[in-house]
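Sequence in, structure out. First:
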Amino acid sequence: MLVLGISDLDHDAAAALLGAEGPIAALEEEKLSRTAFAGVPQMAIERCLTEAKTQISSLSMVGVACRPKRAWLRDEGGQWHAFAGPSGGRGQRGSQEELFWKLEQLRAFRGLAGPAVPVVNFEHHLCHAASAFYPSGFDRALVLTLDQCGDMWSGLLAIGQGTRLNALRPMRFPNSLGWFYSRVTELLGFRPGRDEHKVQWMSKEGSPGFLPVFRKLFSRGPDGLPMLNLQYVATGRTGRATFVPEIVRELGIADPSAIHQGRLRADIARSAQEFAQETVTELAEAWRLKTGATNLAVAGGLLLNVMLARALEKCTGFERIFVQPVAGNPGCALGAAYLARHRLNPDLGPQPLSHLYLGPRLEDEEIKAVLDNCKTIYRYLPSERQLLDETVRLLQDDKIVAWCQGRAEFGHRALGNRSIVASPFSLFVTENLNRYVKRREDFHPFGLSVPAEDAGPLFDCTSNCRFMSSIGNIRGGPKELARFGFNDGAARVHVVERHANPRFWSLLRKFGESAPAPVLVNTSFNLFGEPLVCDPRDAVRSFYCSGIDALVLGNFLVVKP
């Protein structure tokens, strides 16, 4: 049995292929197109099918993570569609235009799939919920999803038990914490729908003095769910909803279009972050008590916020929490596949997610062809021992190394197959990475990768750090690691399990033989504003367009002179 899942067609389109044993392949379209994409992810679908050596006509079912007609009916004449503002496809078309566009996209895909392959539409947030519950491994769990807007819902509370997933209560748009966080992102001069992570990281530099201002924006409904107070919302110059001038004045912003970097900006970010954490943890705790659930599974774009995920771990009474690492729109492809599989075989239940290396794989023949075509001078290192020795030597010499191996990660986090790594004991490593490679603001923290066997003495962290979907705390170890901490020792920790990524695990252990600890700085291998590299050509281009010193591409080594 093979089922295909497709994310909502609105933005960040992705495909996922699922079998009886779990995920086989999953990939975002933009990693192949190298540009933002909305619609049916045809290239991603083809790559997933190629990975399984199958054809679309051989699929048992296709699940799609949107119900356009229901979304249109919930939109109440198009008023909320405009309220949401642009988010990929949304905002570029009117409500009815978007309905017709999505229906046409689905009609064309059904023609491509053929009459023998059933194509089933599922609720956007039910797909988020499925992407959280079924890979969690929990027998029973409360499931919470939160994003800006999907099928005119902004969240869902559900219960997963055994093999079944039952919706309890939807959160209807515009009562949206995701919308709130995106509007703060825009207010601070960032791109809504793209730069919410910047608000999260900027918040660590500020204080929550504006928390009372943001508390005005939401009240609690009879069921305890957050409700947006529309008297604090106005239509901005662009035609979409934003905060009323009164709120903006209370935040100390005289001119929203000219807000400067500095303490005010950081304080607003911290206040928004604290408000999101406070609201979501209270919501989760209230429903924990109401349902008696001991486990929690979460997904949705708002849960890409790893500081929010950590707050759920620390400030609620759940015994175990699973944060879907691909919590945003691409993860809906995986959720749609799980729902389709459940429809075909209701006896298949949750299976723990062991890794996210679900994208295209690197092949030596393809790598060599690209390097030769680019007239690149390289070395081929046939044994893993040689490869590790040479890479560690470069890291010891304070070089920044692009480590590109095996299959690409699903999602936007680099987990050791499309990573840029460096020694945390190099004096200017963060400055060099930010200035010459990532070209981003200094408030972004870098991840620290560590073998699972060595993590305990160095870091206090949960199992969600396997996917960098939460954060940990620095517990001990060399004093140099403290440079990567923030907010009293918090740190982005990536715990690497040997069975999940044996080559990256071996690199960490080899580095630790001659370094104070088996820890490497890990950040994503991509140019500014681009998705993770996927194929050898992307890797070579990104390598030569940045300040990276060396590229380890499969068993090939390229070093800049």
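Second:
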Amino acid sequence: MAARNNKIGFVLAGLLLSILMASMDNTIVATAMGDIVGKLGGLDKFVWVTSAYMVAEMAGMPIFGKLSDMYGRKKFFVFGIIVFMLGSALCGTATSIVELTMYRAIQGIGAGALVPIAFTIMFDVVAPESRGKLGGLFGAVFGLSSVFGPLLGAYITEYATWEWVFYINLPLGLIAFLFIAFFYKESHQHQSQQIDWLGAITLIGAVVCLIFALELGGKTFAWDSAQILGLFAGFIVLALIFLYAETKAKEPIISFGMFRKRVYWSSNVIAMFSGAAFITASVYIPIFIQGVLGGKATNSGLVLLPMMLGSVVTASMGGVLMTKTKYRNIMIPTLALLVVGLGLLTTLDENSSLWTIRVYMVMIGLGVGASFSVLSNAAMNAFEPQRRGAASSTLNFLRSLGMTMGITIFGIVQSQVFTRKMTDGMAGATGEAGASVGTPAGGLPAGMDLTDPHALLSPELRQGIPPQVLDSITHALSSSIVQLFAWAVIPAALALIASFFMGKEKMVVGEEQHEYTGGH
């Protein structure tokens, strides 16, 4: 028994490493993008580096989840590790932003298999009475990695070279590969079924169109341009075809019949909306620290540590409590904390202290942590083993979609508010109502573009701005970010409302058979 437990321990360690790599890779690269663009060039194309990863990962999640149900978890999980490591190695050798974009897409394909299948394997291999505790651990790592990425990215770019943002995945991936390859042996019998090719192709196409429309709109192309309108039209058409295809397929990529279960659809809705609210705070609090309070990149990353610790606490508590009480009894109070925490962020201004921000971030972390552990378990516990891969991958897909759409839509709102307030403030600060923003006449360094709030993140650039003008600009940035947090309260509140619909279900600990791994 001890040997068997040791082997399961190795499997779980491999799964945790895989989740850490895949979920951290987006945020860690975002922090290093300034240094990457400075070395490789291609400022006009850097948005594709993030988009390529997100598109490939999101499109792959439901597809790999379904395939793992049909043909087995291990082969697709090992495939995901190998592809992710290959993409990471290639990214470190990129000599242009175009090459890096292509290699990031390879990484994303691997990540699309890792996260959903890792949660499913965990659910398969451990005894039912241990799923809550381990689900809390897995959820804590998932939440921690999302917040830890920006901090690690800041340190790597400051003390090493940008290539190590990608190379760090190689030793982690190798360990995960060895643990899974040698210690995980599936005992569950899978049945080959017909692949839903039309559903897979239209889903990938719809995701590609939507993500590129959101990423390029208002930046590379105007929102009313033919390119952006065409992408949105393509998304609508392909999404409609996908929805139709899923109603006709024998084994659909996303089975709408699964959403008839109350706990399942409510878990997916909560994941999508809470993800949108959580990522907004994760991205814009560091910008507030640097751009408004004048902190360094590493300081702005450290301010996320309280949120990280808060999320670990409730992710772990949620994992333990879900075997003792209803899912909704865990989600309602924690999501209420998320709503309150985001509401308190709307009270920030230029005079706010770091300690005040830390307290608010702890509340947000406590509010979102349980969603990382409870929701995945609630979704999978509603189904038999043959459908758990699809259940897990659909929830992770919708969480990622919510995060992507949240940060994009709220980013548009923040940018517009910032530009408007900055223009008004600059007119008052310079006494020249007709002066154009960003010109030497307005008291700014030549060529400085303040339509992007990141322009204020560099202490060196801030020193070149006259104090009166800097005060006016930081006030505009502060006001725009605070308004952004006010908008982010909406998806948090919707997630809270959805939690009331989870019903009376809780994790049932019974005599269900599960897969032990460990070979012969």
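Remark: The chain has a mean pLDDT of 79.
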